[in-house]
Amino acid sequence: MRLDTLTYQWKLQSQVTDFFSALLNEQLRYFQSKNDSIETIESGTRVHSYLQTKVNKQVVKSTIEIGTIIPNKKLELITQHAHGKILQTYQIHTTENGTNFVSYSETNELKQMKSQLSLLFTLPIYKLIYNKSAKKRMQYLEMIVQNN
Question: Which DSSP letter does residue 111 get?
């Protein structure tokens, strides 16, 4: 695993198909909030937004694109901006005893070496915030499944 990758693992309480459907539906809702002409998402679907960077807290114009979609297995999102890119991945896997997990990861690739080094120094602190945020995201998706 790369040093600039953060990962959070969540034990699924819902069925894989239901969880993945909720994940895709929430992603579609986000994309529609940025571009109401989007009706479905698929690999290559993209929107433009303004997002805050992690290192220097600047608001930058960004493009968010759907990368790989493997139904009930994997969803990748690629966020690109002037300072670099972020690869977000939801990966569902099953253990030998049949327990389902989803791993959510973010890999940050910054264009300037100085920024990349700064990120590496801040990641241990950011990891705490990241884990809390990822846990809330997983709980939210599970709640959507339960309410449907």
Answer: S
Dist. CA 121–CA 70, nearest whole Å = 33
Q: Tokens standing for 62?
A: 């960004």
- Reply yes or no on whether the pLDDT at 113 is more than 80: no
CA atoms within 13 A on the CB side of 120: 11
Instruction: For residues 135 and 24, give the distance between their C-alpha atoms in angstroms, rounded to a whole number.
Output: 18
Instruction: Give this prediction's pTM.
Output: 0.86
In one letter, which amino acid is 118? S
Phi-psi region of 57 (alpha: psi -120 to 50; beta: other; left: phi over 0): left
Contacts of 105 (CB under 8 A, 6+ apart): 5, 6, 7, 8, 87, 88, 89, 91
- CA dist., res. 100 & res. 98, Å (int): 6
Strand partners, 80: 63, 85
Q: Please check whether residue 60 is in contact with residue 83, taking contact to mean a CB–CB distance below 8 angstroms.
A: yes
Cβ contact 88:104 at 8 Å: yes
